[in-house]
């Protein structure tokens, strides 16, 4: 049976300090822990004061903040449909390296990487003493679909690995068998529409047992993408953020029925 420390909750697409405040309030009301939030838009979609507020709020409540590196294919002027979210060209790569250093200096806990070359370069920087312990998480855009690929990501420096919604429980168990206990598998329990959709609530306890330590993640099916975020998305973003806390309560209840505890619940 998994220990409570094997199960953490990650709330993706928390793109602004106002959304973080809403999430914290709703999670407290529902007795749902928040271990990590992630931002898909990247730190460069926040003003300096917004970024500082985001980090201050999160760290005050013991929440880790992970940010997608702002440079990526879909944010280029012309999108290459075959390039997923890779860094296209040397200018984008240099820009991403610069943002790694900035994130480290600002106190961001970890970064989401969707480019294997960047992951390799970032790990070499960290080994050389740069980046001050910044953690690396591989994006769902490059989710491994077999155990060997997951093991490769870990060797390249990832300590948190987003997996595909299509990976079966057996697939995830095979990945876990190839990874160290310090590397988490990050599993969408509900997969947003832009990632092909899907619900895995029925499998919550089995996913934990097969793949722990895990971060359980909460997308919302049939909700729009929330980044790049701005005031034009404020109303729906508020609704989606609150709903993520309710979805997390559903998972807490399902895990409790199965005898699996969640670290931080009931405090």
Largest sheet: 8 strands, parallel, barrel
Q: Predict the CATH topology.
A: TIM Barrel
CATH class: Alpha Beta
CATH superfamily: Aldolase class I
Compact overview of the structure:
It contains eight helices and nine strands. The protein is of the alpha/beta class and 267 residues long.
How would you describe what is shown here?
- This protein has 8 helices and 9 strands.
- Strands 1-2-3-4-5-6-7-9 form an 8-stranded parallel barrel, surrounded by 6 helices.
- The model has no long low-confidence stretch (mean pLDDT 93).
- By secondary structure, the chain is α/β, with parallel strands linked by helices.
- Helix 1 (17-30) runs parallel beside helix 2 (48-60) and helix 5 (147-155) packs parallel to helix 6.
- It has one domain: TIM Barrel (Alpha-Beta Barrel).
Q: Which tags fit this structure?
A:
40% helix, alpha/beta, eight-stranded parallel beta barrel, globular, TIM Barrel, single chain, 267 residues
Secondary structure: elements and pairs:
Elements: E1 7-11, H1 17-30, E2 36-39, H2 48-60, E3 64-68, H3 90-106, E4 110-113, H4 116-127, E5 135-138, H5 147-155, E6 160-162, H6 169-178, E7 184-191, E8 198-199, H7 204-211, E9 214-218, H8 234-257
Parallel strand pairs: 1-2, 1-9, 2-3, 3-4, 4-5, 5-6, 6-7, 7-9
Antiparallel strand pairs: 7-8
């Amino acid at each position: 049976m998994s220990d409570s420390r094997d199960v953490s909750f990650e709330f993706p697409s928390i793109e602004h300090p106002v959304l973080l405040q809403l999430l914290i309030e709703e999670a407290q009301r529902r007795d749902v822990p928040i271990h990590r939030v992630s931002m898909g838009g990247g730190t460069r979609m926040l003003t300096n004061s917004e970024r500082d507020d985001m980090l201050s709020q999160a760290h005050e409540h013991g929440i880790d903040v992970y940010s997608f590196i702002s440079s990526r294919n879909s944010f280029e002027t012309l999108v290459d449909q075959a390039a997923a979210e890779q860094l296209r060209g040397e200018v984008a790569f240099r820009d991403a390296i610069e943002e790694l250093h900035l994130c480290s200096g600002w106190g961001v806990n970890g970064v989401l990487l969707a480019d294997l070359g960047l992951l390799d370069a970032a790990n070499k920087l960290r080994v050389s003493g740069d980046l001050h312990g910044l953690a690396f998480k591989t994006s769902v855009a490059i989710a491994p679909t077999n155990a060997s690929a997951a093991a490769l990501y870990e060797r390249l420096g990832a300590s948190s690995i987003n997996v595909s919604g299509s990976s079966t429980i057996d697939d995830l168990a095979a990945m876990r068998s190839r990874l160290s206990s310090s590397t988490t598998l990050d599993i969408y329990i509900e997969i947003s529409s832009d990632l092909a959709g899907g619900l895995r609530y029925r499998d919550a306890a089995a996913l934990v047992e097969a793949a722990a330590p895990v971060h359980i993640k909460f997308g919302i099916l049939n909700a729009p993408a929330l980044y790049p975020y701005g005031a034009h998305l404020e109303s729906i973003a508020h609704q989606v953020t609150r709903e993520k806390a309710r979805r997390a309560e559903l998972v807490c209840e399902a895990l409790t029925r199965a005898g699996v505890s969640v670290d931080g619940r009931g405090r």
